[in-house]
Design a protein that fits this description.
2 copies of one chain form a homodimer. The first copy, chain A, is of the alpha+beta class and 230 residues long. Chain A is 22% helix and 27% strand. Chain A has 2 domains: 137 residues, Nucleoside Triphosphate Pyrophosphohydrolase (Alpha-Beta Complex), CATH 3.90.79.10; 60 residues, Orthogonal Bundle (Arc Repressor Mutant, subunit A), CATH 1.10.10.10. Chain A has 4 helices and 10 strands, in the order E-E-E-E-H-E-E-E-H-E-H-H-E-E. In chain A, the strands form 2 sheets. In chain A, strands 1, 2, 3, 4, 5, 6 and 7 form a 7-stranded mixed beta sheet that branches. The longest helix of chain A is centred in the middle third of the chain and has 15 residues. In chain A, 29% of the residues are buried. Chains A and B meet through strand 5 of A and strand 5 of B. Chain A binds a DNA duplex (30 and 30 nucleotides) through helix 4.
Chain lengths: 230, 230
DNA sequence: TCTTCTTTGCGTTATTATGACACAAAGTAA
DNA sequence: TTACTTTGTGTCATAATAACGCAAAGAAGA
């Protein structure tokens, strides 16, 4: 190993997470209330430093497990944020990621580092510490773009779901209203969901068609090109 | 400042650059032949470590200046590569970027760290050191996607250009052939180039229409949706 | 049980976007 | 002068899309 190699002085490396949760037709983001400086008592995204042996995916899972109590998520790398003054403690490069979870499946707990953990609707995000407002903004934009050509978002639904539920998810994430019949046609033409015969428990007398994600989909890409009525 | 902060042991941080050059209707990538281990005498992407006070953009410019002799580029962040064994010297996270340049405008020189610097056509890239083959592959894919909805690639042309020149660039980057008349219609409908009256010098008796990039374009996004004939 | 309202599945139609291709004018080369 | 190539500008048949109708089935209320 190059002897100079580990004496090379360079910035610290961290990750920050934008955790999206979809529940009762509302899209939220998970925020931590900081117990310590900087930004003590302020809201920030969950994050943490990368340890020597960890991959980015591992550090994201570690943060979710220790700070929030959940892990094993759909995870996507977003962007690296490098402004020199973004962290008052020193030079930190943050590789931001975002995840999607169904809040009903987890019990969120504040880890020992935080006063509180709370879901905030995406249109009611408070001022955030560091450059996390910008990170959140970019994550929202990426999610909106990605859902139009990639079957993201199924992590937020049950294994089987109705067409109405799927449409509500799209309308919520994209923040638009979509014509019910055109949405159905485009989603089915895209071929990434399948009709399933099984009725869902808990729905007594309703029999709307139930669908599930088509995991055998050849190409993992399509073009929804959704637009709203009028 | 947190006293623990700078004693935190974490991976080194580097950038790698995929430098695309377009010249004589051929798309190439700039590669370095390494003078030192690891991968001595092997081809790799240009890259370097991030210094404490540098932004990502600054380190990219420094690498281009010192290793290749050019700077001030169109630059886009691509992705962070974090495989634990990607660098045999130790743990290095690389934040890959890609750039577009017109090779005619620069004289490429091998910096003191490299045996040689050479352009390779994108379909004749040799085996690369580290994980640079994968980085190159992702950069190519990103460039192909991006050019369909964002006016990238104008860095590779002169300030004014003919429709045929612009189409050749698209055909080269996308590696498809496009119907001349449909391409013209879509590009003009997108509204991101303008007709300019000025004739270009050096073209004596030819007067094809000359266009230039519309810098006043409101939204910096469109949808080309180009497809090839037949 | 009867009536009313909502939800859901499955259509149709007018408009627009797209792919394929024709043609003439002007420059180029022989 | 005569091909040949390049460039600008169309047309047209087809496909994709947005907007919307309608009937069947459940839900809700009397």
């Amino acid at each position: 190993m190059n002897p100079e190699f580990h004496t090379y002085k360079n910035p610290s490396l961290a990750v920050d997470l934008v955790v999206f949760g979809y529940h009762r037709q509302s899209l939220s983001v998970l925020l931590l209330n900081r117990k310590d400086a900087p930004f003590k008592d302020g809201w920030t995204l969950p994050g943490g430093f990368l340890q020597m042996e960890e991959t980015l995916q591992q550090v994201c899972n570690r943060i979710m497990r220790t700070k929030i109590g959940i892990e094993n998520l759909y995870l996507e790398q977003l962007y690296s944020f490098d402004a020199p003054q973004r962290d008052p403690r020193g030079r930190v490069i943050s590789i931001a990621h975002y995840t999607l979870i169904n809040p009903e499946r987890f019990e969120i707990i504040a880890g020992k580092m935080a006063n509180d953990v709370q879901w905030f609707p995406v249109n009611q995000i408070p001022e955030l510490g560091f450059d996390h407002t910008e990170i959140f903004r970019q994550a929202s934009q990426r999610l909106k773009s990605k859902i139009l050509y990639h079957p993201v978002g199924f992590e937020l639904l049950d294994e089987t779901f109705t067409m109405t539920e799927l449409q509500a998810l799209y309308e919520c994430i994209l923040d638009i209203s979509i014509d019910r019949r055109n949405f159905r046609r485009k989603i089915l033409d895209a071929g990434f969901i399948l009709l399933t015969g099984s009725k869902r428990e808990g729905l007594k007398n309703r029999h709307p068609d139930l669908y599930k994600f088509n995991k055998d989909l050849k190409q993992n890409s399509f073009q929804l090109n959704i637009s709203s009525p009028q």
